[in-house]
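Re-run with default settings, no changes from the original entry. Doing this only to confirm the output is reproducible before filing.
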Amino acid sequence: MKVHSLACPQRRRRSILWRQAGAVVLLGWSLSLVALAGGPEPTPEQIRFFEEKVRPILAEHCYKCHGSEQQKGSLRLDIPEMALAGGESGPVIVPGKPEESPLVEAIRWESLEMPPSGKLSPTQIATLTEWVRLGAPMPKGHGDSGGLAIRKSRGVLTDEDRQWWAIQPIRRPPLPVHVTSQAGAEGNAAVTGNQMNPSACDGWSTTPVDRFVLDRMLGEGLRPVPMADRQTLIRRVTLDLTGLPPTVEEIEAFLSDERPDAYERLVDRLLASPRHGEAWARHWLDLVRYAESDGYKQDAYRPQAWHYRDYVIRSLNADKPYRQFVLEQIAGDEIAPDDPDALVATGYLRLGIYEYNQRDVRTQWAGILNDLTDVTADVFLGLGMSCARCHDHKFDPILQVDYYRLQAFLAPIAWRDDLPVVSAEVLANYRQQLAAWEAKTAELRAQIDEIERPYREAAVKAALNKFPDYMRELFAKPTHERTPLEQQLVALAMLQTVGDEAKVDFSKKLKGETKARWEALKNELAALDAEKPPPLPCPPTITDIGPVAPEVVIPGKRSAEPVEPGPLTLLDPRPTPIVPPPSGTTTGRRTALARWLVSEDNPLPARVLANRLWQYHFGRGLAEAPSDFGRLGQPPSHPELLDWLARELIDRDWSLKTLHRLIVTSAVYRQSSHGPQVTAQASRDPANRWLARMNVRRLTAEQIRDAMLAASGELDLRMGGEGADLERGTRRAVYLKVFRNTHDPALNLFDAPDGIASTPVRNITTTPTQSLFLINGPWTLARAQSFAARLAAAPSATLEERIEHAYLLAFGRRPQADERSESLRFLQDHGGTSHEAWTDLCHVLLNSSEFLYLD
């Protein structure tokens, strides 16, 4: 019996099993219909996306003709109602449907060519297209600010600004003492139906974390729900800490462990597992928009970018202090130039999009620096600073100069693809072997070069002629006369000429005797290839363009005075002192930035990181917008707890595993997500802001894919190295190749990020295409077939034993009586041992909500 459609004629599928699986499909369809019926108010994340990404594009390219002063074609784009109403020719935005929106056609130059001054960059087009796809959210209310008061004191910081919660010094608040107010007691009585004893929750807390949560819970008239059972806990914490479901053996070992600290021992084992770094690296890679391709239309593969991914996994498995983790990524080449790991870490600075044929190099380089500035502010500071690129931030006390103070730290970077990431000993051996080969082949290579050089030079010349006049002037300028910025622009342009030079096909260019001689020389050289050492790994890395930094100025300012690197003016208006490293080859600016990012004088990074860890464990941060601690986000629900966690992080040498352990061994983490008391608490706190129960969460895209492969017995747990090809690979999802424009179907459907922008919170969508993929998709069906084959590998087992094993592999538990009888009846009706019947049963299990969600 094939599982292809809910309309399948075999009505016996309307069993308890199929009601589980069918719920996924019906939920997808119903939610899609709700979405089409009318969009909700913009979320904080959508407002932030508009303010940071969309508004700067509209302000620079659109508002001049379609803003407050002028409305060509009666189209105005700076007010939500007018933007959606359109102009003389009708609506230009069809919310949620970019392919049907004239605005998107115009910016792609597929109909009208807008803006007429010049086509937007591919990144800008992608941003506006995504905005329309999201429904064209714009803030509403006062002006266009979403009800938030716009800061009036531009360029000036006030006493009110200095009270901003996110920049206050991090202190260790005292642990709360649980004395329940009478109001709290009465509130709980309404929930439980009994008069609550103020000390009823004594003994509930297992870590200091619980003291803060319980204090707020009781203050809101709530009380904790019972702890989850052991089977729920092992599945929850194992998927949480390792990204994989527990094995049958691990479940049985935990359930039979009667020691009082059995759970804590389980947590320690999971934190020590190599699977932990693989799972949590994915969270970090989301933030830094990791991908292994350039993006844009060509989306060229970056064959050695995976070294950075492996660096992140190694660092998290080793519990490398976050302080060191940051230092290496921002300035590894300056602080430890002889450490291969530190050089690989600077790959963080190379993760942006690159357009290989963008001849306007100045514009592309400015875009690269802006993107790097935005992401650095998002990831490490939790600030949406891109709003301040064009003017002082509208809502937060972030000045325009602050944006360029941060950018000034990063401005000297130079891309490097020629730095080997190996030990000194390996490098010395390589150079010795290479020198011997070069000496032996010098004459041969010289003769080949003499033949090839004119064609290579012609290819380079043709490539250089494609650049605008200002770039051709720079090419002609002597190297020692170029400014640091000019050196950067030339270096970026030369990357394109290397590609053009490599495309020369000498087998077609050369003719007659010259071609015959060239082929003979090449064959002679190839005969000596065995003596040439294989190339060393040289992943994308960073150094500075030199010891002198390029000037950074605020665009459009008449004075155009250089901006010196420094922190937020609100924290310190003075420029940061820069100490150049002894090598004399770099500026030292990135080392200064990295040290400030992990300085105790900077209250942001520790709060941001503590909040992120909490978010990934509970599905939502204490501050709900984890990359925006400003007014477009929200203050934390438990500010004292957030500060306590941040202080603990710093005092524990920035150990992430220590914080993980504190959180997952807490009583609040171990609460149940189901049951009568959960229902009662949910009626009082639907959003679970006060954490009186555990949230039910859908597995991430990677967890769904990997859990299916684990259940089917196909999961390949090899670590590290170049990524596997999409679809065909059975390695963990973190080891799949990551292309920005071509995605693994399973990961794409379940909301994995595309690597274009930093993703602090993933979308959680429920769509019909997900359900169709699970029911009709050949990939899912292949997993069900392998799952069935795995069960059949024990032919001596009874039907009941194999059914039990199937449930253990899929859900981490044995089947209930009705599930067992339904499964047994289905198999008996279809021959019992039929591979087709077992495939259908396994397919149902993989489609069920219990498989896809975490209690």
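The CA atoms of residues 612 and 626 lie 6 Å apart. The two ends are 31 Å apart (CA to CA).
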